[in-house]
């Protein structure tokens, strides 16, 4: 189920012109890790809401997780919510409830990535058209996988 309240909240925070359409970001919004502007590829944006109210934006889910695995356990505990853009609908969804396709032919603006979907059925349909070696739940994603995607091994 898509989280409409979160969708509206995130869309407004992201500066979307029209909720339900492709997200459009203000040109000043950049990725916390790469410092790349995000408005050119809103379909890949991920974000983390922190306990102190700060919002960190990322080029993709992979980049968000690269940041997450690089901070201390105490800092990891301060991440309150995580969101990604559903590749099928372009809606913001809870990253911890998404399904991720690994190994497809589709790459994000930062290279090989995990492609997020709100439902397993959407992920399966995507794999039929674009390849992929497996569908993963959020809790199956670890630092080793993110390092592999970043070619840090």
Account of the protein in words:
The protein has 153 residues and is α+β, with helices and mostly antiparallel strands. The protein has one domain (4-149). 29% of the residues lie in helices and 20% in strands. The chain is built from five helices and seven strands. The protein has helices spanning 4-14, 61-70, 73-77, 120-130, 143-149, and strands spanning 46-50, 55-58, 79-85, 92-94, 99-102, 115-117, 134-137. The strands form two sheets. It has a four-stranded antiparallel β-sheet with strand order 2-1-3-4. Strands 6-5-7 form a three-stranded antiparallel β-sheet, with helices on one face. Helix 2 (61-70) crosses helix 5. The N and C termini lie far apart (36 Å). Residues 1-21 have low confidence and may be disordered.
Draw up the topology in text.
Blueprint: H1 4-14, E1 46-50, E2 55-58, H2 61-70, H3 73-77, E3 79-85, E4 92-94, E5 99-102, E6 115-117, H4 120-130, E7 134-137, H5 143-149
Descriptors for this entry?
153 residues; alpha+beta; four-stranded antiparallel beta sheet; three-stranded antiparallel beta sheet; 7 strands; 20% strand
